[in-house]
Amino acid sequence: MNTNEVVAHLATEAAGQTVHPNDHVNMGQSSNDVIPTAIHVAAVIECERKLLPALTHMRDTLRKKGEELSEVVKTGRTHLMDAMPVRFDQELGGWAAQIDSGIARVEAALPRMRRLAQGGTAVGTGINAHPEFGERFAKAIGKASGCRFETSGNYFESLSSQDAAVELSGQLKTIAVSMMKIANDLRWMNSGPLAGLGEIQLEALQPGSSIMPGKVNPVIPEAAAMVSAQVIGNDSTITVAGQSGNFQLNVMLPVIAYNLLQSIELLANTSQVMADKAIASFTVNQANLDDALSKNPILVTALNSVIGYDKGAAIAKQAYKEGKPIKELTLEQTDLSEEEIDRLLDPADLTKGGIKK
Fold this sequence. Notes:
Largest sheet: 2 strands, antiparallel
Mean pLDDT: 94
Shape: elongated
Number of strands: 8
Distance between the termini: 69 Å
CATH superfamily of the largest domain: Fumarase/aspartase (Central domain)
Number of helices: 15
Number of domains: 2
Strand content: 5-15%
Helix content: 55-70%
Order of helices and strands: HHHEEHEHEHHEHEEHEHHHHHH
Low-confidence stretches: none
CATH topology of the largest domain: Fumarase C, Chain A, domain 2
């Protein structure tokens, strides 16, 4: 049941007579309250039916993949440089937390989107509308859509501004930023396979390039990054449009509707595909992970509390320069036994934090 059908139903019920398009259907409404209402209704429905379920699926997929790889340790990286080790469940758990926060952000914005302008008519005064029209409309559209709505507490706000849509768009932008971070991490981890990190292997969806046989590109994370850029751009458009309300009407409602609904659809579709075709299906290159860990001089950080920062820094610099393992140099330059060094530098144990003694 669309907006006009709901209004017609209510008008018929109230008047008990043949419905005239102007005298009845449009008597208690205006495009000035219908269009803002339509934006809110469409956005809430799309968020509840598509976006939130897709984000939940992506979050749960990340958690599940992390659990599967909870015993796998890899080199951490800060500034794109080798850092202390982390486990896959810790890294993917960070991504899952980002998506979980995104879900909470959307849910926090939806209460304002549930407030409908319908009933404000031309300028917000409700001229020509029954005093109960807005409330009854919200109830009817809620019943028809299966989503909860309520009439606006202030029609002047709802007609003249689109602050709720701007707020929701800002939350979508934040999710896009999270999505791009995850996509780029996956691309880095998949890079190579010989001259890059080569930590994981993404599912080969488009094997072979137009000129280089055997080359497999990370097309899903790349698509997710492009989607994120689009959503970020959409938010800028919605922000400009949102401040274009002059007195009792915002004239940029169409561009708000177009960009907001596009952002919701893009993020919903991308979340689903990223979960199923990139996260759930990637495999780990264990040999590459072990090789990088064994050569990582930053592991000496774990010895700070035993040999001191300065001694550790000297060992790390020498290890970089000479390409020698930390263990070998530590044995040569400290009084620590091989057993003590193995215990202190155990990569899996280092992912648990704390002070090593």
